[in-house]
Automatic annotation (TrEMBL):
It comes from Psychroflexus longus. Pfam families: HD. This is HD domain-containing protein. It comes from the Bacteria. Residues 22-138 form the HD/PDEase domain.
């Protein structure tokens, strides 16, 4: 099988596996991350096949939706790639990327680093910010039945009064806990440039949100 066929089979596998996924972590999220990764790749010297496979497989079984099990995603990806007769070195690299791509980095015990990981991580983080980031975040909050905003709960997590469990805190808080921090975490120049623009959009969104909330607009 050539690489083009393997990529095409991987797309079909991921699309089918994620057919019932939450809207922010569905096939279209994967497709956007894959396209972001290809965009970044055009300015970097990296293994294209590894980046493409890892971006397609990075959320194949997100632990958030699998009872916190962080092993299931990498295992599923490995088993699939074995059916495609992908060489072991590539499988190993893709699995390491999946293990290390998450923002939380909970399983970063290996200190693994590669330009391919940097690219997939940037591609995933870009999809968490900007207009898409806003949409995904409110979709996730709705999925969890969380409040949109609560003026009695400071949005800055350092001042949080713990009125809500973190996983049920108002969706606006997620901007301060994560989304507004992502711009400074980008690895590649290409992603940094895109992130700056998407970050400004979120700042404007929040300004407008508070003005409307307070009846000032
Ligand atoms: P990663 O896979 O990089 O660790 P997550 O899967 O936790 O990131 O987050 C992906 C997206 O899901 C976030 O960018 C956000 O849109 C949404 N999300 C995750 N956690 C929350 C939350 N507590 N409140 C609102 N949205 C969330
Ligand atoms: Ni993702």
């Amino acid at each position: 099988m050539n690489q083009e066929q393997i990529i095409s089979n991987t797309k079909l596998f991921v699309k089918d596996t994620l057919k019932d996924a939450e809207g922010g972590h569905d096939w279209f999220h994967i497709l956007r991350v894959y396209n972001n990764a290809k965009n970044i790749l055009s300015n970097e010297n990296a293994d294209k096949f590894v980046v493409e496979l890892a971006s397609l497989l990075h959320d194949i079984a997100d632990s958030k939706f699998h009872g916190g099990d962080e092993e299931i995603g990498p295992k599923k990806a490995k088993a699939f790639l074995e059916t495609q007769a992908v060489v072991p070195e590539v499988i190993d690299h893709v699995v390491k990327i999946i293990n290390n791509v998450s923002y939380k980095g909970g399983h970063n015990q290996t200190d693994f680093q590669s330009i391919e990981l940097d690219i997939v991580q940037d591609a995933d983080r870009l999809d968490a910010i900007g207009a898409i980031g806003v949409a995904r975040t409110f979709n996730f909050g709705g999925f969890k039945n969380n409040p949109i905003y609560d003026p009695n709960i400071p949005a800055n997590p350092n001042q949080s009064k713990k009125e809500y469990k973190k996983s049920n805190s108002p969706t606006i808080n997620h901007f301060y806990e994560k989304l507004l921090l992502l711009k400074d975490k980008m690895n590649t120049k290409t992603a940094k440039a895109i992130a700056t623009q998407r970050h400004d959009f979120m700042e404007n969104f929040l300004d407008q949100f508070y003005k409307e909330w307070n009846g000032e607009l």
